Amino acid sequence: MNIPRTSLPRVVIIGGGFAGISLAKQLGKQEIQAVLIDKHNYHTFQPLLYQVSTGGLEPDSIAYPIRKIVKDYPNFSFRLTNVDAIDTENKCVHTDIGDLNYDQLIIATGSNTNFFGNSEIEKHSMAMKTIPQSLNLRSLILENFEQAILKSDLEERNALMNFIIVGAGPTGVELAGALAEIKKGILPKDYPDLDIRQMKINLIQSSSRILPAMSEIASEKAEDYLQGLGVDVWKNLRVTNYDGDLASTNGDVSFRAATLIWSAGVKGATIAGLDGEEFITKGNRIIVNEFNQVKGFDDIYALGDIAAMQSEAYPFGHPMMAQPAIQQGKHLGKNLARKLNGKEMKPFNYRDKGSMATVGRNKAVVDLPRFKFQGVFAWFVWMFVHLFFLIGFRNRMVVFINWVYNYIRFDREARLIIRPYKNTRKS
Amino acid sequence: MNIPRTSLPRVVIIGGGFAGISLAKQLGKQEIQAVLIDKHNYHTFQPLLYQVSTGGLEPDSIAYPIRKIVKDYPNFSFRLTNVDAIDTENKCVHTDIGDLNYDQLIIATGSNTNFFGNSEIEKHSMAMKTIPQSLNLRSLILENFEQAILKSDLEERNALMNFIIVGAGPTGVELAGALAEIKKGILPKDYPDLDIRQMKINLIQSSSRILPAMSEIASEKAEDYLQGLGVDVWKNLRVTNYDGDLASTNGDVSFRAATLIWSAGVKGATIAGLDGEEFITKGNRIIVNEFNQVKGFDDIYALGDIAAMQSEAYPFGHPMMAQPAIQQGKHLGKNLARKLNGKEMKPFNYRDKGSMATVGRNKAVVDLPRFKFQGVFAWFVWMFVHLFFLIGFRNRMVVFINWVYNYIRFDREARLIIRPYKNTRKS
């Protein structure tokens, strides 16, 4: 991998997501030799991927070059590669560009879409965890409208204009809301040949309320908002199969739809060498102690979505979201500094800052630890918080301008089929 | 194609480039039934593609949804499709989504990269006529740097950091300048492991000066600027072959390079049914009269790059650039209105507004009909003109902000490998 070993302890970080970048920022000035590895050369701001899928934002404004982050840290190197396996005995990471030895290893590989073993659904549905996936979805939505115009058969046309979203967590809810705004604001203008009433957005949730991780009032309000926007919300319903055309459920309904977006869950992105049963718990996550150390090692740590730090308050680990990842990254950075200076590490304490979801213009729900609110103010808070956590001044400016523009004009201009999805899928 | 015929005369426009859009804007309010066809759902602002390739702008800000343009014209329809052939006898366009009859047909298909029959060069080199091509080049440039770090063999590393640009028209010159700015501003910060001196930019021109279509003073100044930025300019040299590694020439030099960008020429994008020898002249262009009518037809027109309107001043037709396309589109729009109202059409007169090229920050050359200038002011004029001709307020804002940011920070933040090019090429 062409990284000569120095006399400094070598810290290898796998993954440049929220956890990895938060850790890197903390370790930036430390006396270590750090190597950050990722399979992309950019950090993705995942909470806004749904806006890329729906033409509200360009992909480049929610991505940030990892090299631009680590360039300020003289002891950091970055390598663009896939990790094949970890050899804990020889303290070595095997990658497709060679081996890399470590003194301290941090696993911040995040999570992948969880299809719960249903390969038929995996094959035919759209996921939304990466920028290429979001761009594929953007292309598909627009391609479906273009195709719908050409169909004289009503059933075929309806299927092309029917969007099924499985899973009503924040991603599913936000995507449903954005599609509803496309139906209202874009469809009648761009596609006067199509009957707006034929576009259906079905949001399907297996449990008894949407946004199940939020408060009941948030769930209720969000559902009200969605219904007001014309989204059909289905609760206590589970999609059991999807063949690219027909989505079957455990209830007595089924849906004909050309598009099914799967946002029903994620699972830890494990790595060979640390994926033995003794390491892994529910959701494919690696069990860690209160210092984020992997069971049985004092030199291997796991952070963020991939790490399950089980406690009384969080028996299955912290929620797989940005906040625990950011906080764990920062905390581990401080702990590693303590350790390098011969001091004791401190246990991690999660500070739940609350959670939020937006449904559409002027419509959001916010749960703070002390109080909960919904509506216009919640929507402003949602925007402010997302702008604040975006990396990079230019990205913030461009996102801000797009939001102002979209708000004033009821528009989403990035409705571009730059790489057709259907052609890609065929080949 | 699901477009019922109305009693109005049907005008079919093939191509949503500068010519097609300029015509559409002119015909927007006419009493016709117009159908605009393009293989993309967006208009591309081609003069700024090189900035997409070099990470200065996001692709979405130089593309504009065609449906958003024609939605204001009640008599316009848009169809996303490829044209297979034209049947002039039955006045019909064959496409991959069905046939379309026309009363008046306008061919505004533009041009493709001209490899002058060398399939080896075509296979291995990068073109830059479309947004996907520009994004492929962006990925490749960055992938090459990532790979160069890993090579201990000096020759291999040099080849990965050697960029050959063939053809020193505006595109080649602007790309060379942008790569030089990457070498100076990005490479040392992002890739401290690489020796900046190993990055070479070779600009190769077959004739005796660069920017041959511009004034001699512009050529000289541009060459000065490029040399100041560290670009190696080769004149009177022709690349005869390229196998993906070695570029041979008609001189006694050859180059080992992992990247060769071909900007040495374009040729008209002809259509079956109108590609007979009697219609076509030099550069694969369709011969048209002074009303843009194709020889032998009074209901078929060609516009822009694809059209060769031969005159004393322009014996081979107008230059294949945005300005003639825009002016011809506008003029034909007026002529068609005259024709529909039973009036005489007027011959087209090209108003040469001059030409310009930018080399880098504060460095551009401008040839106006009355005077020529270079340097900082030329650079501002270049930027102003390009912002002015961009379609869409949001695009202008986003491009402007990126330019201000890039100028102040000596930066180009869109250095993202969103879809790896090398993996795509392999598969």
TrEMBL record, chains A, B:
<feature type="transmembrane region" description="Helical">
    <location>
        <begin position="376"/>
        <end position="393"/>
    </location>
</feature>
<dbReference type="Pfam" id="PF07992">
    <property type="entry name" value="Pyr_redox_2"/>
</dbReference>
<keyword id="KW-1133">Transmembrane helix</keyword>
<keyword id="KW-0285">Flavoprotein</keyword>
<feature type="domain" description="External alternative NADH-ubiquinone oxidoreductase-like C-terminal">
    <location>
        <begin position="353"/>
        <end position="408"/>
    </location>
</feature>
<keyword id="KW-0812">Transmembrane</keyword>
<dbReference type="InterPro" id="IPR045024">
    <property type="entry name" value="NDH-2"/>
</dbReference>
<keyword id="KW-0472">Membrane</keyword>
<keyword id="KW-0520">NAD</keyword>
<keyword id="KW-0809">Transit peptide</keyword>
<keyword id="KW-0560">Oxidoreductase</keyword>
<feature type="domain" description="FAD/NAD(P)-binding">
    <location>
        <begin position="10"/>
        <end position="329"/>
    </location>
</feature>
<protein>
    <recommendedName>
        <fullName>NADH:ubiquinone reductase (non-electrogenic)</fullName>
        <ecNumber>1.6.5.9</ecNumber>
    </recommendedName>
</protein>
<keyword id="KW-0274">FAD</keyword>
<dbReference type="InterPro" id="IPR054585">
    <property type="entry name" value="NDH2-like_C"/>
</dbReference>
<dbReference type="InterPro" id="IPR036188">
    <property type="entry name" value="FAD/NAD-bd_sf"/>
</dbReference>
<comment type="similarity">
    <text>Belongs to the NADH dehydrogenase family.</text>
</comment>
<dbReference type="Pfam" id="PF22366">
    <property type="entry name" value="NDH2_C"/>
</dbReference>
<dbReference type="InterPro" id="IPR023753">
    <property type="entry name" value="FAD/NAD-binding_dom"/>
</dbReference>
